[in-house]
Amino acid sequence: MIVFGCCTYNRCERLPGLLAAMAGQDIGEPFTILIVDNASTDATCEVIAREASLHAYPLRYVYEPEPGITRARNRLIREAGDAEYLVMIDDDEMPDPGLIRHAVAGLRDEGADCVGGRIRLVLPGDRPAWLTPGLLSGLGHLDYGQEDFPVRSRTHPLWGGNIGFRMSVFRGDSALRFDNRYNRRGLGIGGGEDTMIFHRLLHEGRHIRYCAAMLVDHEVEPERVRRTYFLKRGWSRGLLFGRHRMTSDENMQELRGGSLVKDIWWASRQCVLHFFRRDPRYLEFLIRFAFGWGAVCGRIARFACRSARETG
How is the chain split into domains, by residue range? Predict the structure, then answer.
């Protein structure tokens, strides 16, 4: 059995078109659409019920009362149950008609445990000059080219907005789930849960595959096409890095010279140099600087919590 899943929160106006695109997949074999409503406060439930009755979609609806993307995605895994394959997208995306056909081909024919594909951005207007190619991944963009290949390192991460799993990897390991420490509630800034499950699969030596034909269009909300959004996102991700990931040598290699101090100094210097050269890439380094100071604060918070537990 194939499950095509989506987690949603307060985007009821997008659901009719999204459900039609999910139901219109050209895979040529039966599949079930599974929608996890993550404590929406709009008309999500009513819209889904109406669309299901009007079009007789192969649809299951589940309400998840605990807010947050990791709670919703883990509920999706749980509800997929005995399915053979699970393909998941987000509610701000529109799948290409062949998405799950190509995902299942990668899982079934290539023997992959996890597959991921391209995420193409749909911006609310013209792309601003400051939105350099290096920042696009911060909006969910992913494109490693037109050729499929096995993923064997952290240099080619796959995002949770366009990903598929062989469900046996979850049934064989009940601890393999999206990490609740990286939970992002509602439309908030943060996340990193998809990065962590990707790292876990890599560490376990799972067969991970990039499938170029897996394609979704990701609709970017106007409030995210702002420099302040990227700075807040950098800070938030740094905070989580400092709290949870700085205990691992492998994670520390993501920093310049394996040192947080060196990384902050390098980012600040590059930011100033690029700013005075009128190079818009200065923002990339400013975000890296925000990440570094977020990591410092996260590390301090980690030590404070540990000290409080020891003295308490």
Answer: 2-224, 234-311
Degrees (nearest 5) of the Cα angle 192, 195, 199? 140
- The 10s digit of each residue's pLDDT in 120-144 is 999 999 999 999 999 999 999 999 9
Range 2-224: architecture per CATH: Alpha-Beta Complex (3.90)
Q: Distance between CA 237 and CA 242 in Å, rounded?
A: 9
Residue 157 has pLDDT above 60, yes or no: yes
Can you say whether the dihedral through the CA atoms of 11, 15, 21, 25 is positive or negative?
Answer: positive
Tabulate helix, strand, coil % of the chain (nearest 5). 45, 20, 35
Using CA atoms, how far residue 11 sits from 90, 162, 187, in Å, is 11, 18, 10
Of the candidates 95, 309, 62, the one whose C-alpha atom is nearest the C-alpha of residue 214 is: 95
Q: How far apart are CA 191 and CA 188, in angstroms?
A: 9
For residues 164 and 112, give the distance between their C-alpha atoms in angstroms, rounded to a whole number.
9
Ranges 56-60, 107-111, 187-191, 211-215: which has the least confidence = 187-191
Residue 63 CA to residue 81 CA, distance in Å, equals 16
Nearest to 59 by CA among 69, 50, 67: 50
Residue 244 to residues 94, 238, 239, 251, Cα–Cα distance (Å): 33, 10, 9, 10
What pLDDT is recorded for position 249? Answer: 62
What are 29's two structure tokens?
A: 């074999």
